[in-house]
Each structure stands twice: as structure tokens, then as C-alpha cells.
Design brief:
Two copies of one chain form a homodimer. Chain A is of the alpha/beta class. Helix content of chain A is 44%, strand content 14%. In chain A, the strands form four sheets. An eight-stranded parallel beta barrel of chain A has the order 8-9-12-13-14-15-16-17, surrounded by five helices.
Amino acid sequence: MNKQGVDKKACFFNTLRVLDSQAAPFFAAKRHRGWVRRTPAKRLRGRPRRALCFLLLSLSILSCAATEELKLNLMPFPAEVEQKDGKFRLTEAFTAAVKGPLPDRVSRAAARMLHRLSGRTGIFFSQGTVPSGGDWDSAGLGLIYEKPGRLKVGEDESYILKVAANRIIILGKTGTGILRGLETFLQLLSTDEAGYFFPAVLIKDRPRFTWRGLLIDAGRHFLPVEVIKRNLDGMGAVKMNVMHWHLSEDQGFRVECKSFPKLHKLGSDGFYYTHEQVKEVIAYAADRGIRVMPEFDIPGHSTSWLVGYPELAAAPGPYKIERGWGVKDPTFDPTRKATYKFFKKFFAEMSALFPDEYMHIGGDENNGKQWNANPKIQAFMKKNNIPGSHALQAYFNKKILKILQKYGKKMVGWDEIFQPGLPKDIVIQSWRGQKALREAARKGYFTMLSNGYYIDLCQPTDFHYLNDPIPADSPLTAHEKKYILGGEATMWGELISVETVDSRVWPRTAAIAERLWSPGSIKDVDDMYRRLEKISLQLEELGLQHIVNREMMLRRLTGGLDTGPLKVLVDVSEPLKIYNRHRQGVVYTQYSPLTRVVDAAVPDPKTVREFRRRVELFLRDKSDKKKEKCLRKQLVTWRDNHRELKKIIDSSPVLKEIEGLSGALSRAAAVGLEALDFIVSAEKKSGPAWIKVQKEILKKAALPRGHAELMIIPAIGKLVKAANR
Amino acid sequence: MNKQGVDKKACFFNTLRVLDSQAAPFFAAKRHRGWVRRTPAKRLRGRPRRALCFLLLSLSILSCAATEELKLNLMPFPAEVEQKDGKFRLTEAFTAAVKGPLPDRVSRAAARMLHRLSGRTGIFFSQGTVPSGGDWDSAGLGLIYEKPGRLKVGEDESYILKVAANRIIILGKTGTGILRGLETFLQLLSTDEAGYFFPAVLIKDRPRFTWRGLLIDAGRHFLPVEVIKRNLDGMGAVKMNVMHWHLSEDQGFRVECKSFPKLHKLGSDGFYYTHEQVKEVIAYAADRGIRVMPEFDIPGHSTSWLVGYPELAAAPGPYKIERGWGVKDPTFDPTRKATYKFFKKFFAEMSALFPDEYMHIGGDENNGKQWNANPKIQAFMKKNNIPGSHALQAYFNKKILKILQKYGKKMVGWDEIFQPGLPKDIVIQSWRGQKALREAARKGYFTMLSNGYYIDLCQPTDFHYLNDPIPADSPLTAHEKKYILGGEATMWGELISVETVDSRVWPRTAAIAERLWSPGSIKDVDDMYRRLEKISLQLEELGLQHIVNREMMLRRLTGGLDTGPLKVLVDVSEPLKIYNRHRQGVVYTQYSPLTRVVDAAVPDPKTVREFRRRVELFLRDKSDKKKEKCLRKQLVTWRDNHRELKKIIDSSPVLKEIEGLSGALSRAAAVGLEALDFIVSAEKKSGPAWIKVQKEILKKAALPRGHAELMIIPAIGKLVKAANR
């Protein structure tokens, strides 16, 4: 892992050498035809690639109506992109062929590609499957690779994608590289007046980090197999390669356990994955080049285990499945032999079920209360010179580590497991942040970053996007940096349901995927948002519900009435961020409805970003009538929306809680309109009294209502500030 | 089956007697409080119940803006409904309790009910599960039943639902009855200014037919488990009780077969249900009171079987999975012993896997070509005095029947299997229609109707709704009618995908469900459509994608541009009906994209129905300015839509094929506007030349384009006719 994880570049150029010789005839032919290298592309070849980002920067938001330019909508953006002249036309005659060892996985991926391409274009291809041994010479798309590829940390995922007017080739050292290249290929599809085409391009691509994960918490709210699968599809589309499956929590034990069947039978309310389903998910993930790493969170976060096996707890039972959220007391007793006997058998079963080389044992947020209150445990600690709960947990971890090693697994855990004396092949997942990450790396431990990627906290995409596991100013040495394997977005499950989970994961996670795949120099936020819009629509094709479910939820909320006015409000509202939803005087539990306006609202809505930008641009040039008109139109819509929405609220009691939010939007928009009048008027002056009143109105409008908040208040505040003269 | 199938009424009143005594204290208390029976309700008690339908008739379409009246939005409409005074208020304190034998299934259904109720209302109930032995006395909703219930033809599914201001009780003879009652209960939820409530009501309900099915064809296009499950949820919501799972076709063999693994390994492209998945689906269906009847279509429609086992075919192989549609030649050889040896082992496995007492063997559309061309088969027929293909198939069926009987199964097949000498416990499924149905019933064979319920043919809801297995004027005797068990909607799979299947099944199937459950006298089409709108939204709550997927498809079709103009067009378009999509010069195969405008269009769109009705109402009273304005507004929207849509078409090649359709809508709307001018003008006269030209324009506008057609042409034609003076 070490070598592969570090020496990616050398590794990639090896690939190139090997494949270039294999594909020589094709490339030679292309070269003879004399591709013209465009000047902008030339400029883009060296690093840093910021110039590229500026070129790609969307200008569409400068006017009300978006104007389209020919740009590459790739995400994650590849390491090297060289645009060429020419277009490969997509027609009914298009076929694909594959050359490589054990081609089943690549063949299946190619068949899915055909299906997606046909679905997007409506073209009736004659080909529906891409078996090995198909007609290579006539194939419009050739897939060629050297090794099947393994699902391992450090795997070579590089590929070269070459589009010429008469042929497309994707070259990879491994089949995994081909999977990554196919996703780039699908993102390249473009249109012009003559139809669909792929622009001529030479892409050389490889990941910056080898661990690009998404944690899915199925413990708190169970997520059926199809939810996992469609998210795996989404991950594959943005080249992520680890699904970290959080499978046990105080609120649920989610895997069938044949050794200890009371785990799933008594700890899950019947909502668990069978062995066969687990295998199905693992195979599905593998087909998309994604490892599945299970997490069984111990010794805390374990109430659901103890329902069936109370004798293993550090305090007498009985236990029942926890329904509330937060850090709970129930914990395994780390001093009893029976506990390790249990885990030995348990991990024997789970190590066989989950083939990944890593096993995540959680290890977070054990409050130590049960341990402190148990005299036997206290006596044990005294006898064994264990000074406190942390040390006792380290003792526990070492025992568990031995069990895992016995079954050939490497241990992964949260920051808390990081204790002296652990072997160097474990991986620390950092929820604490850069400091903890660096500390581990300096001591020669592998780490990955999750702090800053907590997508459950409903923070904006650019916050996550700019969160780099190895920022440009990192104080780490080149050697130390090798220990930072990548990162994981974490979809914690307190406030998600089958209906909403996709809208919490996507599209923001695509930006995290880019952070972990693309060169660190690619970090233009505007361009990221421009591409994200496109990618978000393509994610829908895979069955992800992140856009449609909002529409369904709005229909339910209005009871079948016009959803328009509610949508206007939801488009400028966000769920309360961080942990603020839990501080509104309502206690959320596993049974709480996640179907309210706050759940239909999404983090970082486009309307808000666009308004913010429009205000900025207007304030730079206040005489621009078009920009003013644009702003005014938007503000009038918001001001007048409450009148319409009020009627709907009156017939739909579930909306009562957002009546205040709707009124606040109306009032805030009115403030904005008045400010606009002052700004553009040669005569009218606002005066300090007016300013004071408006600020007060905006302050009140910014308050949370129905666990949501209006996100356009700061931008309106800027208008008020500008009106101050 | 016979007795139960027939004597439902007696059976139901037995239930009443038993439960009345059990629930005596509750009912006694209610009676003492002196419920007031409303006059309209009184009038509605006797049959026919047409009066009820008239009362419930929606008047909303009389004006542009819908006006809401308090009506019961129940579907299927119950057999007896008596409205009372009073409201049961839904609050956070609401709880449910269950009393009955083996309450697991009912408990789970009650927990799902709580989840749905909480989801719809946003109310935070403290209760999340409804275990047996909960607090009965304080429960707002009590569920009480006598027997667990079995998944059998003739099962008692009756229930009584009594809502009083302080308590709700659902009584059933069986747990299945409780499941049915819970769905009615959820449909009863109403709102007023004070919040959510259930209106006081006494409902006594039971099904008219015991077999209310939906055939899902997973053979032609594979449908993953989650698609099956969400459709089972939909079926449960409208009280359907048979999922007829069409599991083998020329294009795919869809079940893991342990006895003959080449069936699924070579015959499915990897798309099949494992045994565990089949069991999962059966358990899921059982939880919703739904039987799962598998269909293995033999001896024809069997190409996919013969890929792995060509030696069983009536002509030499090799075979490959069929990709085209239609009636194909490959057929089992019915003259060889090996064939029956194969089926003996095959049905041994499948009979154990599928617990339902019925096994469907298809038996349809064997063209006999392979049999006629095979000299050995011809010799066998001669030797055994078998006069032709039909007789040979009868011979085959009898042999298969014996095998099924050995495994305790009753045989079901399509019309074609109906041959003299079959035992009387088989069931004939009629795709041919009433005549075949009656013929079988007269001869004492059980039958069920599918003719008229072919939902794949994209016909309007009312066509299916008014298709009664036993119409009021049926010439059958009371005794003969007993043999008609019910019917099945058939979702054949040539032109459906995971994305579109729900929109082809729902909401139309809810109307078929009502036909099969509710008294035959309930057949008011307008009222059906009014309730269908509401039920359709509730079906969304269950995860059905019939509404949202259109929105997603429109987004993909426009490549992320505004979907509004395309929606205007799609709202008045329908897929070509019956088998006309196959007659447009394009050959559909298993690989064809089902993502085009025609696939996003749905049968029987609401906009068309409303326009048709508005034209009718306007033509009844041409001086009504409001109605005229309303029509004019709609026509102007359509006329001007093409200008906007054209821009989107120009940037999205997949839309090119509907440019003509969009232009035709514009021209047809212009015709309508001109006609409107003539109609309301005192001076202007149209004249025969104008009429002729307009009729020609409309005729051309009605032509199919992009495999879709405009549905508003006849209504515009009426305007033209009315302008003729």
C-alpha cells in the first residue's frame, strides 16, 4: 500500500508505457493525421491548472437568462486534459468492444454505459451487451487494459481517454481504470445542431488520493438495499471507491448474524441486511470499482447489540433498542473473557462475509459511565494498572485488534482508537480534523479525513470542496504526506430517511469526490458549482432521488394543491446547520417524521447562491438597469409569495410551522426592494432611522422557524448597507 | 373456495356477529351517545349506490380554480358508508393497539400506518411500534380480529371501521381484514382549520371479487426487487390481493433455478431473482395480504429456457436470448420423456419456493411452427391420434397438470389451456374476453378476466374502470357467476423500464382495483377520476415513482434547460395505444431506449380530460364569458408553446422527433381559437371553406409523431363543429 499509495505518478507512467505499446497502431494512425493542439489547451498543460478553472468559469449568472458556452462538464476534473479539433459523432451504428483479462466486470460496465448513453440520447443502438471477443476493429469505442484490477488500497485507477473523430479509446492499466474512464467518457457527451458527439480530447487521469469514501449510516435509520445500490451508482459516477457501511448503532444492528442471531433478531426491528443482501451489495460495489468496508461500532454505540446479549454489557440489562439520538451509556464490558469470546466468533463470521482487507471498529464516543459505575470493572482496572476509561478502551482495542489480525483484517477506527503501541497498518479516520490527522501521519500512521466532510450537517458545498486533506500550506513533509490516504464524506443517519438521504448526499458529495480525486490546484468554486449542476442531473439517470423527492415531498405537504408558492420558499430555505435542529425544543427520535418543509429543503440551494452573486454584481455596477431589474423581479416574487402560500398553509396543517418563515421572506424581500429604490434613486435618501428598522426586520427574519432558516438575508443585508447614504 | 367465494355476505355477517360481541362495550357506549344519522347518509344505505356517486361528483372542473368540498376520498369505495357527526382529532398523543391471534403481521402493518400518518401530517407521535399487548384502553385506534387470516382464494377480507370523536376501531374477522381497514383509515384522514382529523363514520366493507390481481412481467425487462416491492405497496393501498409474477419469457428467465442452473445463468443476462429475493418478495407481499402467483410460460414463449437446455426444444439449437418482441418459434418438445422429467424436477423446486396454491403455466401464443416442422413430432402425433398443434398442447398441459398436482398445486393458464377434460379446480385467465369468460364459467370452470385490463396498451382509465367481469346485464345465472373469481390488470413488459413501469401501472390500476373490490353499482366515472387524483398522490408516499419519474425524464430530455414548455406538450400527449408503437417503422427490442418523450407521456392525462370537459360545458352555454376565457387561456398557452419549445428542441437532439408534434399542437390550438372567435361572435361567420381547411389541419395534427399523439384534437374538433354556421 505504502509504495502504491505514494508513488502514483511513477505508477501511472508505467501504465502509459505499457498501454502505449499495446495500442501503438491506433495512436500512430491518429498522430499521422496531425491533430491540431489548440492554444488554450496548450496553456493548460502545465501546473498549476488554475488558468483552466478561470477559462471554465461560468459567466451565465451574469445575466438573468443563462447563455451556454462549449465547456467540458467533467467532475471530478481530470488530472490532464488536452482539447483537440474534431468530433466523434454518436449514431445508431455506435458499438463498443473490450480487450483485457477477465473482462466480465468491464463488459458489464460497458453494457451499462450503452444503456445510459442510449437513455440520454434516445438513440436505438443495435448493440446491448459488450462481450469479450466482439469486433474490435469496427468498434467506435475500444476499451483496453492490462490487468483485471483488485479492490485494494493503492490500486492503479489511472486511465487515458482519447477521442478522435473516427474512434475513441480508453486505456487503463487495470479494469478499474477503465471503469473510471467510462464515467469521464459519459460526461463528455455533447450536442450541437447536428446531434450528439464526443469532442476530440486527450485525457490522462489518475486519482490524487487512493481512499475516496462515503460513509453511509444504516444504523440509525435503516436504508434498504436499493438505496445503498443507487448511492453506489452515484459514487461510481464520480469515481469514489470506498463505501464505508456503518452497520451498528444504539438504534439498530443491521446485519444478519448467524453466530449470534439475537443481534439482528432483537436489535433491528426486522430491518437488517441478510448475508445474501450483503454479498449482493458487495458484488454491486465491486462492479463499480468500490470497496465495501463495514463498521461495527464498539465498545460504545452498542445498545442494539445488548438487547439480545445483555450479559456482555458493563451494566445489568435488560436493554431495549434506543430510539433517541446522542451519546448513550450502554457499553460492552471489556474486562470479561466472554466479551472477547463473543467478538472472536462474531468477527470470524463478519470477516468472511466482508472481503475487504479493512474492518472498522468505530471506537468513538464511549462516555465511560457504565465502566465507572461498575465496581468489578473498577477493580479490574486497578489490578491491571489501567488508569482510566481511555486506557481501558485502548486495552479493549488491542484485544479486538488481535482478533481482527487473526482473520487477516487491518483495523480502522475513529480518532479515539489512536493510542500508543498500535501496529502501523491500522487506519485512523479523523472526525477531529487536520491536527489529529497530522499528528497520526507524523507518527507514521495511515489516516483519512472526515472532519469537514460531515455532509449530515447541511453545510454548503464549497465548505466541503475547499477542505483539503493536504492543503497547499500543509506543514507535513513529503514522507509524512504519504500517510494521508484520502478522506470520507459521512452521511450520519439521525435526520435522514429513505426519502431524503439522496438529497443529503448529492450533489454535494460529488464536490468532495473531486477534492479527493483531482489535483489540489483545481479549486475554483464557481466552476465547481457550474459543473455540479450538470453532474447532478446525470446522477438522476442512475436512479438517485435527490431532486425528484423534493417535488414529491412538496406535493404531500400541500396535499395536492399547487406546489409553486411552497417551492419559492423552500428554494431559499435551508435546514438548520450543524446540530441546531436538535436545539429547537423538539426531541427527534427514530420515529420522528422527516417529511416536513425542513426535510424538503436542501443545503446550499442554487437560488440562494445565484441571488447572492447577483447582489454582488449589481453592487459593483449600480447603474446597470438589467441587473437591477433582475434583482427587483426576484424580490417582488418573494415579497408577494406569502399571499399565495398563506392560502395553502391554511388548508394544510403540516405547513403551519413555516407560516412565520414565509412571512419573514415576504418582509425581508420588501426590505430589499426598498433598499434597491434608495440605491438607484438620485433623490431619495434612506437615513439612519430607516437603516436601523430594516436591520431589525432582517435580524428577525433570519431566525429559525420550523427548523429551517432563510438563506438570502445576508445578501439583502448588503443591499440595505449599500442604501445607507 | 367455492363456498367462500360465493357466500361472502353470510360470511361477513358472521364476522359482524362475532366481533360485535367482542367489541360490545365499545359499541354500546357509542350507541348511548346517540349518533345522529345524516339524511344523505341514510339515503345512501340501500343499493344501487349511484346516488352517492352523484353526491360526490366533483364540481371543481366547472371553474378554472378548483373549489374544495368535504368528500370522502376513498378508493376502492367501500361497500357501505354511513357518515356521522363528529371528528376524531389527530394529535401527538395518538396511539394504536392490537388484539388478535398471531398479531405480528397486523402489528407491522400498524407500525407502517403510524409512519405514513406521521409522514403525512408531520406529527411527532411518541409511539413507533404497535406490539401486541399494548395499552388497549387508552389507544385512539384499536385493531381487533378473530383469526390471523390465510393467503387463500376466498379469504374473508371484510372489516368494519368505526370512527367516533374519541375512538376508532377496526374490526375484522381476519388479520387480512384489518390490513384492508387500515388502508381505508389512512384514506379517511382529513383537515380543517384546527388540524388533522378523521371524520366520524361507520364503514362496513368487503370485496366483491376474491381475486384482484396485477400481473407484473419481469421477463421482457427485468424489474429489480425494489420495483416489485413498491408496487406491492401500491397494490396493498388499493386492496389488491394477487401479484401474478410473470417470470419467464423468450427474453429472459428470471428466477434462480437450483435444479437447472443454466436457466438463470444463461437465460437472464445476470438479471434474475435469487431464491432469497423471491422469499423476501413473498414475505413482503404476505405482510400486505397479497398472494404471489408465479407464471412460468410454457411450452411457447420459452426461448430463454432453451439457451441453456436446447435439447428440450422442438427444433435443434443453439438458442440465444431473444431481443425482439412478438410471438417467437422456440417451443418445448412435448413428445419427449426428457421434457417431462425436466419439468418434474423444475416444478418440484418452484412449487416449494412459491407457497401459493396456484401455479400459472402460461400456455399462450404457441405458434406451433417448430412442432409442424419436426418430423418426429409429427410422427408422434399421428401415432397418438393427436390431430393438431392445439391438441398437442392439450396433451402437454395434461402432463404438466399431473406434475403440478403431484406438488399440490392448482393450475392456472391463459384461455388457450381451456380444453375438455381438465379438472374443475384449474383457473382460466381470459385475455380473450367476456365470451371466453362466460363459456368457461358455464362449463363450471373458475375464471378471471384480464381482457380490458391490459394496462400496457395505454388506454384511458375509464375504459378499464367500466370493464366489469360480471356486468349488470350479464346473462349468466347466479350459480354460473360464482365461477368468475375476479380479474387481473396486466403490466406486460415490452415497453416498460424501471423508470417508467410505475407510470404505466399507476394510478390507472387503482380504478381496476375499485372495479374488483367495490359493488358493481359504483361506476361514476367523474367521481372515480376525482378520487383517483387524491389516491395517486398517496401512492407516491409509498415510494411509487409514477409522478416524479416524468419530471426526471423531462429534465434529462431537455438537458437541464427549463422543462416547462416540454411539459405543456407532454401534458396533452399520449403514447400510441394498443400495439401502434410497434408500427412506426422502428423495431423495438430489449435494448431500445425507453426514455423518450413518448415514454414520459402517460395514458389518460388529466389536462386532456379537463379540457374535454371544459369544451363540453362551454358548448352547453356559449354565452358564459368565464368559461370562454378559461378555454381561450388554455388554447393561447398551447398555440404559443411551440416558440419556446423550439429553442429547447434545437439544443437537445433527442427532442427532434417531437418538433412536429409541438408544431401540430400550436396549429391545432390556433384552430381552436379561431373557432372560439366564430362561436362567440355575433357577426363573423365561419363558412364551409374555413371548416374544410380546419378539419384538414386537425386531421394532420392528429397523426402520430415520435410514437406519441395529441389527445386534445377531438375536443378542438367539437369547437370547429360548433363554429359551423
